[in-house]
Amino acid sequence: MLCLTDEVTDTYRRILLAARPRGLVDDSTLLIDDTAEVPEPADGQALVAVRHLSIDPTIRTWMDDAPGYLPPIAIGDVVRSGGLGEVVASRTDAFSVGDTVFGMLGWQEYALVDGADSSLAVVPQGLDPAVVLGVLGVTGMTAYFGMHDIGRVASGETVVVSGAAGATGSVAGQLARIAGAATVVGIAGSDDKCAWLVDDLGFDHAVNYRTEDVGDRLRATCPRGIDVYFDNVGGGILDAALANLARNARVVLCGAISQYNEDRPVGPANYLQLIVTRSRMEGFLILDYLERFPEAQLEMAGWVMEGRIHHREHVVHGLDHAGEALNLLFSGGNTGKVVVAV
Q1: Which CATH number do you get for residue 113?
Q2: What is the largest CA-CA distance in the chain?
Q3: Based on the domain organization, do 85 and 72 belong to the same domain?
């Protein structure tokens, strides 16, 4: 039975992909459309008012016309993105009016969802949306499974994390400490971020890649070599880490944010170090771990409540600023998880 709140208007705003970006997104890349009519849910569907958007580097890769783990966003389509929203009309038993729903809602004010879509989840009331999208959401889960299942961090080891002041990297470093790592080193892009890593998050050392020689600093802070390198950036920083691997090291390929805006991405030049050190470099997708989210979220929530994991959110207000929010990830203008409050 249809149940509709008073909130729904006749038209709504959405952001469409107008052209394939070259580098950062700009006014030529995105089109703000305010002419679409708010749809009425059919049987088995619900209408969701989008409240918050998760801004992640992978959105930029979906904008390219290139093969990936999901199809490219088509020109003229709503920009794909995870988000949180409130159900305002429902004709499905899966969702009730007032439910908070997480899923691929996109850069828009309203999203029509299918009650049979298993990727959608109802979120318990009272949780901070930024926390749901960040440390207890896909971001935190990426850090959790990347560090534990791919990195297999063990007590006494040396761990290095690039993009360490970002949403995933900041959690990954703290998880390494909880797992018993003897030394945790973060790589970030400003002195303020480096201070946050050491003073607030418990990293042993932080390297400012803009002002310091990363290779030299890794040799100084990791004299026995790097056992686990959690890579979020690729490029020259990945090469510097490969040059300082310990024997039987694990390199976790989580992302390559330094390459997403490049016409010709550059691969690692130091990959032969994997042979010399008998090491392993492995990529992963968080989509492969969806069934294990509940167990990991329960454990993570406990650590957050105990104060063993700290987090920070960078909230950008207004749907119109979603493109600017995405660019923050590549300019280094954020600390922690970027969220758009629609």
Answers
A1: 3.90.180.10
A2: 66
A3: yes
